[in-house]
Amino acid sequence: MSVTGSTLVLAAPSAPSAPPVPDRAPPRPRGPYGRLFALPGARGFTAGNLLARLPMGMFGVSAVMMIAGQRGSYALAGAVTATGLAATALVAPWTARLVDRHGQARIAVPATLIAVLGSLSLIACVRTGAPAWTLFAAYAATATTPNIGGMSRARWTHLLRGAPDAHHTAMSFEQAADELCYMLGPVLAAFLCSVVFPEAGTLTAAALLLTGMLVFTSCRATQPPVSTGPRRGSPLRALAPLLPLFLATGVVFGSMEIASIAHLDALGLGAASGPVLALQAAGSCAAGLLYGTLRPLGLRTCLVAMAAAMALPWLAASTGSLLPLTCALLLAGMATAPTMVTAMSRVHALTPEGRLNEGMTLAVTAILAGISLGAASAGALVDHLGPTTAYALPAASALLALVIGRAVTRTR
Questions:
Q1: C-alpha–C-alpha distance, residues 74 and 18, integer Å
Q2: Rounded to an integer, what distance in angstroms lies between the CA atom of residue 342 and that of residue 377?
Q3: Of 32, 5, 27, whose CA–CA distance to 288 is shortest?
Q4: DSSP 8-state symbol, 223
Q5: Dihedral of the CA atoms 404, 406, 408, 411 (nearest 10)?
Q6: Reported pTM
Q7: Per residue in 197-208, pLDDT tens?
Q8: Using an 8 Å Cβ cutoff, are 57 and 186 in contact?
Q9: Cys-Cys link to 48, which of 121, 149, 215, 339 (CB 3.0-4.6 A)?
Q10: Is residue 164 over pLDDT 90?
């Protein structure tokens, strides 16, 4: 109450002031991979991609263990899987061309069904004692398996047009996924075939492939559109200078695996060599994820690093000790992922518009051919010169890849 002149004024007591509202903490910035998988539909097709990709590391081991266990012949098992690999080299580019021309869902699902039926036929032929030629025919049918890694990379390329940094992160993730699946696949296959029953590895791989492909192709919103215009340019012609590089890199992978298996067996590890061999893939997986958060390097720089790293197992094996070899395999694996990511980026840049999956499949086919060549050559070196000398082959192949890479760079 107060008096103003001759007027009595009644004033209501002032309300207590409200406590200050604290400022909300700003949202934490997402990392490169957080931003990547925040894109609509990215998590869905990635889940299907990983499910369908895991069997890629299971089919070969499962077939060898199943055929050798039932027929008692590793020679027959090796010949069957080699035939399947040769059929894949011929059929995979045609399947990829159909995917680019007609769309992922229309081609990938029926092609996967044919491959799954081939796997089931192989099981039936092995179990019923069918003639040996039926095993070759059944396993050759699995060559229609679509290149799920190429289709996934094509989706990222479609989603991330105009965002080169995010595209680099996506390609690094895809390379890490490759390494993870090829590291876990053989382990899972060997466990299923030896602990459950000989056909369990092939059955599980076929089920995972079909389930993952159905999940992947059901995500239609992220599928790259099919180009209706005239198709100009040939992926084979555009990538011809790069394919020898992928072939030499495949020789590195195939020869390193055989040399390591033989050397670890000579050290007396036997079945315990699996975790040591997995270190190379683990190192590549970790390096791939890390590389996705960094600025991309030049192809020549990556090839120099790989050539230097591939000499380490050769030096470590000459010591006759397990620990140096373990560290060398880890470092060698870490050098391969940046090289593959950078080389695949060249594939993206050189492949004609609308034919990316075909271009990616050509690169993968060259790698598979190199793996076969490297494995066979390393096996011959082991038999004639010993496992330590066999480590010279991946080192020489990495050096050859460097020479090819420099020639490609100069040509461009």
A1: 82
A2: 27
A3: 32
A4: S
A5: -140
A6: 0.75
A7: 888 889 999 999
A8: yes
A9: 215
A10: no
Query: Which of 39, 54, 44 has its CA nearest to residue 177?
Result: 54
Q: Residue 207's pLDDT is what?
A: 94
Residues 6+ away with beta carbon under 8 Å from 142: 59, 84, 87, 88, 115, 118, 119, 122
Percent of the chain with pLDDT over 70: 88
Nearest CA-CA partner of 135 in 70, 212, 58: 70
DSSP states along 172-191: HHHHHHHHHHHHHHHHHHHH
Provide the terminal-to-terminal Cα distance of the chain, rounded to the nearest Å.
90
Q: Which two tokens stand for residue 345?
A: 């980026």
Residue bearing tokens 């799954």: 116
Distance CA(373)–CA(366), nearest Å, equals: 11
Distances (CA, A) of 349 to 98, 333, 399: 21, 25, 24
Tell me how far apart the alpha carbons of residues 30 and 231 are, in angstroms, rounded to a whole number.
39
Q: Give 332: exposed, middle or buried? Use CB within 10 Å, 0-12, 13-18, 19+.
A: buried
- Helix %, strand %, coil % for the chain, to 5? 80, 0, 20
> Which pLDDT tens digit goes with each residue over 6-38?
444 444 454 455 455 445 545 555 677 888 888
Of 345, 350, 358, 363, the C-alpha closest to 245 is 363
